[in-house]
Amino acid sequence: MQELNARRQLEADLSELTRMLMRLSKMAEEALARSVWALKNQDVETARNVLDKDDALDQLTGRIDVECMNFVARFQPLGEDLRTVTSIMHMAVDLERIGDYGGNIARAAIELAGKELMKPLIDIPRMTATLSEMLEKAMSSLERREPALAREVFPLDDLVDDLEKQIMRELLLLMMERPQRIEQATLLLNVARTLERAGDHITNVAERVLYSLTGKVIRATDFRRPKER
Amino acid sequence: MKGNVQIRSQNVNLYYGPAKVLKDITFDIFDHTVTALIGPSGCGKSSWLRCLNRMNDYIAGARVEGEILIDEHDIYARDTDVIALRRNVGMVFQKPNPFPMSIYDNVAYGPRLHGVRSREQLDGIVERSLRGAALWTEVKDKLTSSGIGLSGGQQQRLCIARAIATEPKILLMDEPTSALDPMATARIEELVRDLKKNFTVVIVTHNMQQAARVSDFTAFFLLGELVEYEVTTKIFTAPDDKRTEDYITGRFG
Could you tell me if the ipTM is greater than 0.85? Predict the structure, then answer.
């Protein structure tokens, strides 16, 4: 029962697909981090740069999609191979969306540039740092085939949700004090909401990683605190 | 999806002389389902299939321990009528093996053997069986020509028609498409899915995609043991046993 040669090509191709996905993840992570940095530092150039890179992100997503289909057509995978390739297809969609969110935030950064910020941005960058950590955990879990790492993503999404709520409360108070702030505050609210959504997509990614590694459908809610009623 | 148990295999051990080729095989097969038996060559899947209509009786030194119950009747009991058993448990082999006689006589062979003499009755059986095997429209105008003259795929469907002519409850198929081209294979697979309305089908296949396509349940055999028996979709997406996972992903076999 020695390892068959037929698996060598399959494993090489599957590793390449995984590497492509990790590259996409890195690009999505950068889009978020750089757009938020541009927002905080009012740096139009960095924001434009994020928008410029959006095409590359879309192209890579398209390539992953095609290569996954080719993989299925050539190897007709089953078991863990099948779970992994279908998961990669799903994860690529989630990651592309996160990249798009980076673009949305970059547009907000361009709009805000040159206008005085109503407050220094603290929690929005914290959200972004947490999202980066989540993505890195999910991808390391896939690469190192360690399910425990992906499970660590779920409680971090609770933290992201908390930060968003905190930002909303704060901005609401500031708006009530001075209605002139409404325009900018609405924009920042949107950014916070966008980041919260990105957290949901990363949670999906972590669920997919766990499914591909364990074969069990794992719901993030099992690892998060119960929802408040 | 689980219905009534049609075949019950209880602690079945099979020996060919001193060699133990099946070890303690215990599982139930449900009526009106398609069950695929998979595993590498020599794993015991065909040997177990052959136990179901006592074909191993013909092998010198073969000995079966344990019980195989079909509709709760022990088929290895002393009072078992083996002829009746085989009427009830039809079989289709790897290579199409029509008899060197007309298409009609191929199908009528079994019913005649079991005493059906009336021409009218036989005509009905032949048509019904050929329709059941999805061959009727292709051969209805040449029922008197030789079964050997048909294409491979047609021959195999003729063999299926012959097997169902005696109205068995169970249909055993031992790699029924391994000698056929993809189109003929697709037709047989379609037929298999159709056949389960009237029969319980147990199919041995080396083609895992085929098992995934046609079966409701899959049993994975390895080295004479039943490693895992589960709903087919589970076996091929997320099996519980590491050995099953390794086999379906081509790590061995």
Answer: no
